[in-house]
Amino acid sequence: MQKVSELGSQDILLFFKNVEVDKFLPGDRYIKRILRPAWNLLHHRQKKTGFQVSFEMLADALRANGFNVRVNDYAAARKNPNHPVGVVGFPVILDGWRLPNPVLLGPSLYDHPGLAPKLFADKRFKSYLVLADWMKEMFAPYYGERCVQWFAGIDLDNWPDLSREPKQFDFLIYDKIRWDHDQMERDLIEPIRTRLHEQGHTFQEVRYKMHDHATLKTMLAQSRAMIFLCEHETQGLAYQEALASGVPVLAWDRGYWADPLWQRFLPSAPPASSVPFFSEQCGARFAGIEDFPAVLDNFWNNLTSFKPRNYVKTQLSPKRSAQIYADAYFGTAR
């Protein structure tokens, strides 16, 4: 094992902590921690938070590109106080943060910078990772040039090309609507179903958190295209996994941040996108249900012209993701 005193330019110290809460009884989070591995074997729902998935993708990309990643190695950090550290995940990890090292914060942590407007009053904190362009625009008025844009790289080996698999369905409707779902079911999802039926399209549906990766891969293999329904995304791993699989995406993208948190800090909802990493190679977008019929027809007529996997290969590679992170990470020590 490498001695902690020998940390160098290939050593990256990452710190991550998931949030655990009691659900039914005080202290039952500890019981859930013990039972979770067995329970996970019995269901096909999402087993990890998006924060944890993003963190693991970061660590994997760094390791694949030659970096020695240590996770939650407090001893190494304490013995190397000038070596930078990266802090990822939920804000709770910063509660009582005692390490003296320079810190690269993010991704994740805060949904809005107004939750921590004086974050950089702590001189240990050097930079903050943001994802989408719209997210940088929201954070920059608070954190300025400390904002560094990054993305989680999509590994094409983990998401092989499924475009030539036998298709049972024209569409996979991916429902990740998080606010006012009952209303959106009436005003958006059901009209989409109706239009698909009228046009003779076959489809299947999946709800966010109600699947694991294996289930999603199976559904993508069965589907010619995805209809992605989400108010906004900072990255959007599910639709990008579809793109990587060679499945074009038709996305609902109404253009603003739906989280009611904005009301605490802003006079109106700020701009946001449900597909922040996207191009004409990937598919098409519609802003409202009134636009859907025409966009659907054009999308379907041009289905074979899209090259979504190429977009992921060139724009969302793990190698590029790792290099952006490493540059920002080691830049904190300068």
Describe this structure in words.
This is Glycosyltransferase family 1 protein. Keywords: Transferase. One of its GO terms (molecular function) is transferase activity. It contains ten helices and eleven strands. α2 packs across α10 (318-331) and α7 crosses α9. Helices cover 34% and strands 17% of the residues. Mean pLDDT is 91; it is low at 27-33. The chain has helices at 28-40, 50-64, 74-79, 133-143, 181-198, 213-222, 237-244, 292-301, 308-315, 318-331; strands at 11-17, 68-71, 85-89, 103-108, 125-130, 147-149, 169-175, 203-207, 223-229, 249-252, 283-286. With 334 residues, the protein is α/β, with parallel strands linked by helices. The chain folds into two domains: 4-153 and 318-331, Rossmann fold, CATH 3.40.50; 169-315, Response regulator (Rossmann fold, 3-Layer(aba) Sandwich), CATH 3.40.50. It has a six-stranded parallel sheet with strand order 2-1-3-4-5-6, sandwiched between helices. Strands 8-7-9-10-11 form a five-stranded parallel sheet, with helices on both faces.
Question: Strands, helices and their partners?
Answer:
Elements lengths: L10 E7 L10 H13 L9 H15 L3 E4 L2 H6 L5 E5 L13 E6 L16 E6 L2 H11 L3 E3 L19 E7 L5 H18 L4 E5 L5 H10 E7 L7 H8 L4 E4 L30 E4 L5 H10 L6 H8 L2 H14 L3
Parallel strand pairs: 1-2, 1-3, 3-4, 4-5, 5-6, 7-8, 7-9, 9-10, 10-11
Organism: Mesorhizobium denitrificans
Keywords: Transferase
Protein name: Glycosyltransferase family 1 protein
